[in-house]
Amino acid sequence: MAALLVAGAALTVFAIYFQRAEPILRDRVIATLATRYDSRVELAGFEVSAIHGFEVTGSGLRLYPNTLNMQQPLISVDGFSFRTGWRDLFHTPMHIGVVRVSGLAIYLPPKEQRQNIPRLNPHGPQSGKVQVLIDQLDIDHALLVLGTSKPGKVPLDFEIADLQMTSVGAGQPMRFHAILVNPKPVGNIDSSGSFGPFDAHDPGDTLVNGTYSFSHADLSTIKGIGGMLSSTGRYQGTLNNINVDGETDTPDFRLDTADHPVPLHTKFHAIVDGTNGDTHLLPVDAMLLNSHIVARGDVITVRGQGHDIALDVTVEPARIEDLLALGVKTEPPIMTGALVLHTKLSLPPGNGSVTDRLNLQGSFNITGAHFSNPGVQAKVDQLSLRSQGEADQAQQNAQLGISSNIASNMQGNFTLDNSKITITGLKYTVPGAMIAMNGVYSLDGQVFDFHGTARLQAKVSQMVTGWKSLLLKPIDQFFSKDGAGTEVPVSITGTRSNPQFGLDFGHKNKSGDDKIQRPDDGNRIP
């Protein structure tokens, strides 16, 4: 009988204890959040289960700052859950090991309104109403939105697929592990480090540091390029001034103009403004096949449109065949040779392909060039031999199908715009000849149109054999000018894979004059 009375009394105590647990826990959660964030707290659902201690689930949590008139909550949570022991119910502050959260969203108002956001309670557990301490937060899907009042701007948002934070406390940095969803190129960024304490009044001053890895990022989600990118690195600083050092590997990088995969490896140092996405590259050091590329400049975020990229690029030492393999369809590349290139690169935001939007303005110097097309190289050999007055050798080589494989050099200025390259001040030299030209060709290989002047070491009669040489001797004097044995207008037209070389007496320059302008005084024939 006594045992039954004891059991009955225990059940009564347990029932009272359990009935009191739910309102006690609910009040503690609300009081802690209201104090810590100086906010009005709404909590739509709250349930407690007595299985294995107290298991708590909640839903529809909303925090509205008392100092702001916000139509949407500063912080909202779709659902949360945690477990606590029976004894912890009567401890103040109550200790909770892990809280699981789903659907966390933080909406920060425009910058000019953030001074009214309440600061976190600095007293932590010493505050009478801060009644809950948490060791770890596991968050499934989080969203941070930075509002803006600037015309034409849209809020900046950061989407995090999975986030784990430890040592959560007022005024203290938090250790974290996060999986971030990167929209373009599509992929997940895995990052670990420390963050905070968060400064709601000026998020850009919030401290952050850590490491990241980005793997299997599909570059084809960016129109105009392709390949699978992976990247690792470290970062530290504040949100508006993050110093990032990292490396990327793309073994199959390609442009849609050629669709020829080539390996690309980069090392970079960058300063990133995490509050708006702007990136300053200082520099990017890249290897494309056997070509060294260094780029410095800015990648500015244009919300709702993409990125505005402006870079200074130096390519040295490099091979022209590497860049041709990347950018043009012709295979193998039409030319091989050593390359030095300097250019300003501009890639404005837009929906078109990269090659349609890309703009380049710069200069180049190619030395030791050879053409992969035997027909083109044969014409170069013939030009050089005949220009040196070795017409007999040129004729013999042509009859026997022998190639001298004479190297070419060229330099000039270029502009790439709308998938078309315009070259000015082009100087093309081989032993015995120098050709100065201006022209244009398209990246698809369908337009190749160059016109200019050829200055040759030999006289007209010395470039042919037999009776033709005797016949042309009287006119040598009409083509010998300013130290050149021969000076004639020339053209290169057709397509990139099948250019046509010829004299160009009928072509007019841009001013409408029949005369083709010669190269500057002082240029000498090799």
Characterize the biggest β-sheet. 24 strands, mixed
Question: N-to-C terminal Cα separation, in Å?
Answer: 121 Å
Strand content is over 45%
Q: Estimate the mean pLDDT confidence.
A: 82
- CA gyration radius, whole angstroms: 36 Å
Overall morphology: rod-shaped
Judged by helices, strands and strand pairing, the structural class is alpha+beta
Regions with pLDDT < 50 over 5+ consecutive residues? 1-17, 121-128, 509-523
Total helical elements:
7
Helix proportion of residues, in percent?
Answer: 10-25%
User: What is the total tally of β strands?
Assistant: 24
List the keywords.
single chain; alpha+beta; 24-stranded mixed β-sheet; 7 helices; 49% strand; rod-shaped
What does this structure look like?
The protein has helices at 2-37, 320-327, 354-357, 374-387, 391-400, 467-472, 476-479; strands spanning 39-49, 54-65, 75-84, 94-108, 132-146, 156-166, 174-182, 187-195, 207-218, 225-226, 228-238, 241-255, 262-272, 279-288, 291-302, 306-319, 335-347, 359-371, 408-417, 420-430, 433-442, 448-456, 486-494, 499-503. The chain is of the alpha+beta class and 526 residues long. It has a domain at 373-503. The chain has a 24-stranded mixed beta sheet that branches. Helix 4 packs antiparallel against helix 5 (391-400). It is rod-shaped and about 120 Å long.
Please describe the topology of this protein.
Elements lengths: L1 H36 L1 E11 L4 E12 L9 E10 L9 E15 L23 E15 L9 E11 L7 E9 L4 E9 L11 E12 L6 E2 L1 E11 L2 E15 L6 E11 L6 E10 L2 E12 L3 E14 H8 L7 E13 L6 H4 L1 E13 L2 H14 L3 H10 L7 E10 L2 E11 L2 E10 L5 E9 L10 H6 L3 H4 L6 E9 L4 E5 L23
Parallel strand pairs: 4-5
Antiparallel strand pairs: 1-2, 2-3, 3-4, 5-6, 6-7, 7-8, 8-9, 9-11, 10-12, 11-12, 12-13, 13-14, 14-15, 15-16, 16-17, 17-18, 18-19, 19-20, 20-21, 21-22, 22-23, 23-24
Helix pairs in contact: 4-5
